[in-house]
Amino acid sequence: MRRVVITGAGSVNPLGHDVPATLAAMRSGRCGIGPLSGLVDQDRLAVQIGAQVTGFDPAAHFDRQRLPLLDRFAQFALVSARQAVAQSGLAFDGALADRSGVVMGTAGGGNTTVDDNYRTVHAEGKNRVHPFVVPRLMHNAAASHMSMEFGLRGPGLAVSTACASSNHAMGLALQLIRGGAADVILTGGSEAMLCFGGLKAWEGLRVMSRDGCRPFAASRNGLVMGEGGAVFVFEELEHARARGAEVLAEVAGFGMTSDAGDIVAPTQDGPVRAMQLALADAGLAAEDIGYVNAHGTGTTANDRTEARALNAVLGAQAAHVPVSSTKSLHGHLIGGTGAVELLACLLALREGVIAPTVNFDAPDPECAVDAVPNVARHGVDVRAVLSNAFAFGGLNAVLALRRI
Amino acid sequence: MEQDLMTKDRAIAEQVIAIIAEQAMRAPGDVTAADSLQDLGIDSLGVVECIFQIEETFDVAVPFNANNPEESAFDISTVGSVIAEVEKLVAQQRG
């Protein structure tokens, strides 16, 4: 079977505008959540905290012709992709162009564009919007701009499964390369839902915390929204070896399941089966797993159910496997979250550093996991990891990565 | 005046019961103050919908977090407790 490895990584997220800055924040447990600033109509929001990407100047990355075509979620994706491609050393010319593709996850697509233009026509009563509203807001905008910028002429897809979008995207990229449809795929996800309309919609569901993200902790009271994205270069192993590329990790397996249950309430069975399928697909046993990046949203229901599912999958050694939710650091990036969380998996595999679950004030007996409270753990020998994503709608996607 | 207030409060109870009955897909006459929302078959998403309808109907803001309903400053344990909480909120608003 064709094997798939990661040969490049890039990211723009609340912890930093590139991978080194993000990993530094994960090592030091620096939280990117704070008071919101600069949102239109912010005074009408009940939730006043979030994990914003601050200091990001689009004009520094895109010229005046291009910028009007790019919603914030596409900007995050493109800047991340440039970093990932640069690290990989790939140039997509000649035959490689037709053998290369892009699969990107997003839950809301051009949410900021939708919000701004609804305001224009509904609130301001204008009858005309900018001609680029449609190409900006479409969910595949990021994937399409990536294919255009790098000349990727093979498979191109946008994947939208709410909070599991990135993991589903990366899982499909793995399967496409394995199946022979492509040799290289840029994949990951991005999201820019942290605008008035995006936050207001989440407020309606009443699962947002107003004071912080505390996954697995007794005092947790909801999720905190973030924004940003990450992109990885997935490459067929022999292709990467033939050109002497540095391999960051192997994408060893993927499992996806559906709860077929409730539209918002999670089940234990769906996540359990997804983790088991990812392990089996990777040829790994539960004992091989040295770290789990949890979905860990900080809601009562998710964390309790996920902890039970982890105990069911990991069995006797569950208590000894570090399980952290880096959402406590970068917030919930919704459709982009799995991609940014994969960086914590690379940190564990490559440096033996486990990113912490910060803001962890007291354990919850209902969440029996080693949540790596507050401080990163160093010198841990991690050979394989799982990264969980469980979406509203009961769609579960789990990736297994292995050191190589 | 007294009479007015009592009529209004009875109206509050009736309206709250109508909202809850609608969620439970029952006739208002089949919903009593002693019923819990769970007894009536209303799940967590149904509770959030009830709260939204209450806010829209009475123009109040209900302090309710779906993550830990039992710790919210709004008692939803029974239909009667919801009515009492709404009456309090409406009184505060009038005050």
UniProtKB/TrEMBL annotation, chain A:
Parts of the chain that traverse the membrane: none
InterPro entries in alphabetical order: Beta-ketoacyl_synthase, Ketoacyl_synth_C, Ketoacyl_synth_N, PKS_Beta-ketoAc_synthase_dom, Thiolase-like
Localization annotation: Cell inner membrane
One GO CC term on file: plasma membrane
Residue ranges annotated for the Ketosynthase family 3 (KS3) domain, each copy included: 1-403
A single GO molecular function term of this UniProt record: 3-oxoacyl-[acyl-carrier-protein] synthase activity
Keyword Transmembrane helix: yes
Region forming the signal peptide: none
Gene3D superfamilies per record: 3.40.47.10
Assigned keywords, A-Z: Cell inner membrane, Cell membrane, Membrane, Nodulation, Transferase, Transmembrane, Transmembrane helix
GO biological process: fatty acid biosynthetic process
Entry keyword annotation includes Transmembrane: yes
The family this protein is said to belong to: Belongs to the thiolase-like superfamily. Beta-ketoacyl-ACP synthases family.
Function, as annotated: Proposed to synthesize NOD factor fatty acyl chain. Involved in the synthesis of a highly unsaturated fatty acid moiety, which forms part of a lipo-oligosaccharide that is responsible for host specificity.
Name of the molecule in the record: Nodulation protein E
Species in which this protein is naturally found: Rhabdonatronobacter sediminivivens
